[in-house]
Amino acid sequence: MTKHHLNRIARDLAVEQSLDAAIEIVEVLKGKRSDSPALAELVSMLSGQVQNRSVTHDLLSNSQTASLYHRAFAFSGKKYETAADLSDAVSILITVESDNLSKYNSEELSFLRDFCLGLNKELVSEACHRVPEPPLARKKHKDLAMANEY
Residue 140 domain-assigned? Predict the structure, then answer.
């Protein structure tokens, strides 16, 4: 079983993708379009796979990611009190066919939109409270000029 972890770059990318997906879903609700490429990219990035979608259990195996999904899904106003409730919500997300959203009813589309907005809100909040990486953790470490003089 593979564990999925969203690194900082993926989280930063998901900020943009989640907002774009929410905008596209609103356009579907208004009848202006029937697909959401941004939602497809977001789901692909969250699941960690492009062709084969991950099973729900894999997506919830990481406690940080499960907590992120729980907070994002809570933005819809529904209560997710058990792991089964959260698992059902994630199942809806990963099985959605983003190339034909017109077949979903407005309640399902609103649920997806609210998840995207909640995910965006949570990821932006995380980014604002993020502690910068220490210099030694960066790939291209440069010695301080003063340190070389001693």
Answer: no
Inter-residue contact 74 to 80 (CB < 8 Å)? yes
Distance CA 60, CA 67 (A): 9
The predicted-structure confidence for 78-125, as pLDDT tens digits, reads as follows 777 777 888 888 888 878 887 788 888 999 899 899 999 999 999 888
- Output the six-digit token pair for 127: 């980014």
Q: Is residue 142 part of a domain?
A: no
**Three-state DSSP state, 84:** helix
**Dist. CA 39–CA 17, nearest whole Å:** 7
* Amino acid symbol at 91: S
Q: For 24-78, how does the pLDDT look when each residue is reduced to its tens digit (9 = 90+)?
A: 999 999 999 999 999 989 888 887 654 444 555 566 667 777 788 888 888 878 7
pTM of the model: 0.73
CA distances (Å), origin 115, targets 14, 39, 112: 12, 11, 5
CA neighbor of 40 nearest in space, from 91, 93, 89: 93
Q: Scanning the structure block, which residue is given the tokens 């030694």?
A: 136
The tally of CA atoms less than 13 A away on the side-chain side of residue 76 is: 20
Asked if the structure places residue 124 within a domain, the reply is yes
